[in-house]
Please model this.
Amino acid sequence: MQVEDSNDCFVCGDDNPNGMHASFSIDYNNNSASCDYTIPSHFQGWHGIAHGGILATLLDETCVYACRPLAKEVVTAAINLRYKKPVPVATPLRISAEVCEQKKRYFVVSARIEIDGVVHTEADAKVFIC
Model:
């Protein structure tokens, strides 16, 4: 499978007028990535609470960025989420992920969303090397 970078990505693309415009930092020494982000209220589910699909999207994207030091073109093959606490909108979040294991064709990645150091959502992902 061939994937192509685009500035129209829903999560990180600057050219997507409906996107999230999240910005990620990659740690090339530790095969990890992070993002500081505040979810706007138009991405809420229940009143004042971030929609679970938006949380999954942020974790998915962070997992992909964590793999970038090892492979440029990757896609998520599977992701398992655990919603531990509600995530309020309009609250600064720290999203982070790190590669835990490298297989021949994929990476195993762990990710979390934290507020003030407390984990609210976490995920394990299998990220396929294209």
Remarks:
- The chain has one helix and six strands.
- Residues 52-67 form the longest helix (16 residues).
